[in-house]
């Protein structure tokens, strides 16, 4: 066979069985696209898995925080030394505003909660306990209206009890404060930190990756939050290429409703003490009515005395009229009837004084009957004053006991 022909055939065979540079480039591009798609799919799938796990963990953490608040009338401090317990080496101090979730303290042992960022609203007020909104401290804050004394006077009084009523009152106080405080827990509506709102507590799950490349798995404002500036991203911030954190922010009003604070403060905090105040005023009304009955009895006594005096005066006048008539009779006898005309005047005087005496006696009888009636009412009502005082003291005691028990 011709060697030249064999060489050409072999060249054609080699060219047909190999890859050209163009083919190799196309293959690498396709492979790159496939690898990119596979990595993107893996990342999205992994992120979705992590998001779901962290969402469930955040729900468990929130439930544990609510249970802790109900049991201890406060929220736990953040963990500042990484051991899962609230506070740091010195315990829970006022500067412990931001840290990690104290999973050991609240009893949640899922691994996903251990890296969560946790912040709590702290606004202590040592001068005015009712204005204190340090949610990490159990403290007597609620001052119900307590009515005491005679005449009754009402005062807002701290009764020395610390329970969930006081925590609810702190939530109510915090929710009413519309001012923005740079050193208190808050969230922002955007990455620039605008439109901030204070929160009772914040939980942040860091996500799968360091999405914004800041060297921390926490992204955005969540990574920069400190005790001096506890500012976090809002829970509604969407996930993106540069942000994959999940934020659960609990507002004062939401936590207030979740704990049933409205019913508790409405019943134990207001209705009970309103009833106690009403009973105190009713007790005072009974005392005043008893005094009125005493005045009525005294007035009846004065009427008896006045009627007695009138009767005596009328009797005296009758006696004088009779004496005068006797004198007139003597004069008539001496004058042998010549002065008999003056007898009519004497008889008229006797009749007039007799009528006055009868009227006075009737008035005296009426006054005596009125006096007896007034004395009887005073005597019958006197025990009711003591009974009302006992009732008022009992209602007041029940209200104080309800405050001490909380709910």
Estimated structural class: alpha+beta
Strand content: 5-15%
Using only CA atoms, what is the Rg? 48 Å
How far is the N terminus from the C terminus?
Answer: 108 Å
Structurally, the number of domains stands at 2
Which stretches are poorly predicted, pLDDT < 50 over at least 5 residues?
none
SSE pattern, N- to C-terminal = HHEHEEEHEEEHEEHHH
Main β sheet profile = 4 strands, antiparallel
Helices, by number, come to: 8
Number of strands: 9
Net shape = rod-shaped
Describe this structure in words.
The radius of gyration is 48 Å and the shape is rod-shaped. The protein has two domains: 45-259, no CATH class; 275-405, Orthogonal Bundle (Helix Hairpins), CATH 1.10.287. 32% of the residues are buried. The chain has helices spanning 3-17, 21-72, 103-106, 164-176, 220-224, 252-258, 261-334, 343-405, and strands at 98-100, 117-120, 145-148, 153-156, 186-188, 197-198, 201-205, 231-233, 246-250. By secondary structure, the protein is α+β, with helices and mostly antiparallel strands. Strand 5 (186-188) and strand 6 form a beta hairpin. The strands form three sheets. The chain has a four-stranded antiparallel beta sheet with strand order 1-2-7-9. A three-stranded mixed beta sheet has the order 6-5-8.
């Amino acid at each position: 066979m011709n060697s030249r022909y064999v060489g050409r055939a072999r060249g054609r065979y080699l060219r047909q069985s190999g890859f050209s540079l163009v083919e190799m480039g196309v293959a690498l591009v396709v492979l790159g696209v496939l690898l990119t798609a596979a990595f993107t799919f893996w990342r999205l799938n992994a992120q979705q898995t992590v998001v779901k796990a962290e969402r469930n963990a955040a729900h468990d953490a929130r439930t544990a925080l609510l249970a802790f608040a109900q049991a201890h009338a406060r929220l736990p401090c953040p963990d500042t030394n990484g051991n899962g317990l609230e506070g740091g080496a010195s315990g829970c101090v006022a500067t412990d505003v931001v840290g990690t979730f104290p999973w050991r303290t609240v009893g949640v042992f899922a691994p996903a909660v251990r890296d969560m960022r946790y912040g709590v609203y702290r606004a202590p007020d040592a001068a005015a306990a009712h204005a204190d909104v340090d949610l990490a401290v159990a403290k007597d804050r609620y001052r119900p209206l307590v009515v005491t004394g005679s005449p009754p006077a009402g005062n807002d009084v701290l009764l020395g009890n610390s329970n969930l009523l006081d925590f609810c009152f702190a939530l109510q106080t915090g929710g009413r404060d519309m001012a923005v405080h740079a050193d208190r827990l808050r969230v922002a509506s955007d990455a620039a930190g605008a439109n901030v709102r204070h929160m009772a507590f914040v939980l942040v799950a860091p996500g799968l990756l360091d999405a914004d490349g800041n060297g921390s798995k926490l992204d955005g404002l969540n990574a920069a939050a400190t005790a001096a500036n506890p500012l976090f991203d809002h829970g509604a911030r969407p996930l993106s290429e540069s942000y994959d954190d999940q934020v659960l922010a609990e507002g004062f009003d939401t936590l207030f409703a979740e704990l049933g604070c409205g019913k508790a403060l409405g019943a134990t905090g207001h209705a009970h003490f309103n009833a106690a105040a009403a009973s105190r005023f009713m007790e005072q009304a009974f005392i005043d009515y008893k005094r009125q009955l005493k005045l009525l009895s005294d007035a009846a006594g004065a009427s008896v005395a006045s009627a007695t005096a009138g009767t005596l005066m009328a009797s005296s006048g009758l006696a004088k009229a009779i004496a005068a008539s006797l004198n007139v009779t003597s004069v008539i006898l001496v004058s042998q009837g010549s002065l008999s005309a003056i007898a009519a005047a004497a008889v008229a005087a006797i009749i007039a004084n007799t009528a006055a005496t009868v009227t006075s006696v009737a008035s005296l009888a009426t006054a005596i009957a009125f006096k007896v009636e007034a004395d009887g009412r005073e005597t019958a009502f006197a025990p009711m004053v003591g009974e009302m005082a006992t009732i008022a003291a009992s209602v007041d005691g029940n209200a104080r006991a309800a405050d001490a028990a909380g709910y």
